[in-house]
Amino acid sequence: MFERNVILWPKILHRANWQYGQFSDWNTNPCFFATRDEIGLFAVALQLTITAVTIPDALAMVLMPRVAVDKAGKRELITQSVRIVTVICGVPLLLLVIFAKPIINVVFSPVFLPAATLVRILAVGVVVRCACKVFESYLLGIDRPGVISLGTGIGTFVNIICLWLLLPVVGLSGAAFAVVAGYLTNSAILTYGFVRISGIHLNQIWVFKVSDWNPLKNAIFGKWFRQDLID
After folding, report:
1. What angle do CA 186, 188, 190 make, to 5 degrees?
2. pLDDT attached to residue 4
3. Fewer CB atoms inside 10 A, N or C side of the chain?
């Protein structure tokens, strides 16, 4: 019984941390430190940017089973997916950064135009978060959830500390920088865990290949993803 509990508790704790991590993607705001109006501006900025995280979340449903049944954990497929997600999430976020004010003006109200500055700050952290979130599929597929729990815990801690330090000094921009700091910390831990466990060098993750675009090309032309897309 004792040995069984030793095995189960890390998985139970990870499940709780994973659920919190999913929740915190959508609810990271300075609600304990700011006024109602400031929270409203921050919520608008966060809602516009964090929607991009749904892309790696959806991709995880496809990647995790493939990783689980492969002895090597489909390392090349994971790195390819990281590069694709970087582009797919990065381009819309870049457009959002450029056209933040007109988008906010049309979708919400001119009252929320100050949120444009927050959007531009948050977009940096969100694009990194989207790319590195793909590593969670690998870590879960090979049954190494502890790395994800560690990243979630430390990232949240960094977020709260930076929020406490920066918000009184630079206002809502400080809160946005705090979120970015939390995302970057979390992403760094996930990346380190993937590199350390998979044996793939860091520079191999971000080197784009022509074959990276085969899944997207096939999707556009109505073809199903095939196993031979990875060289």
Report:
1. 70
2. 38
3. N
Q: How far apart are CA 44 and CA 49, in angstroms?
A: 9
DSSP for 128-185? HHHHHHTHHHHHHHTT-THHHHHHHHHHHHHHHHHHHHHHHHHTHHHHHHHHHHHHHH
- What single-letter DSSP state applies at residue 34? S
* pLDDT (0 to 100) of residue 167: 85
Q: How far is CA 44 from CA 108, 114, 152, in A?
A: 8, 10, 23
Residue 110, C-beta contacts closer than 8 angstroms, at least 6 positions apart = none
Low-confidence ranges of the chain (pLDDT < 50): 1-24, 26-27, 224-231
State the Cα–Cα distance between residues 35 and 79, nearest whole angstrom: 42
- Domains of the chain by residue range: 31-206
What is the per-residue pLDDT for 139? 92
What is the spatial distance between Cα 18 and Cα 142, in angstroms, rounded to a whole number? 16
d(CA 121, CA 114) in angstroms, rounded, equals 12
Tokens of 223: 């073809």
The angle formed by the CA atoms of residues 139, 140 and 146, to the nearest 5 degrees, is: 70
Rounded distance between C-alpha atoms, residue 225 and residue 231, angstroms? 14
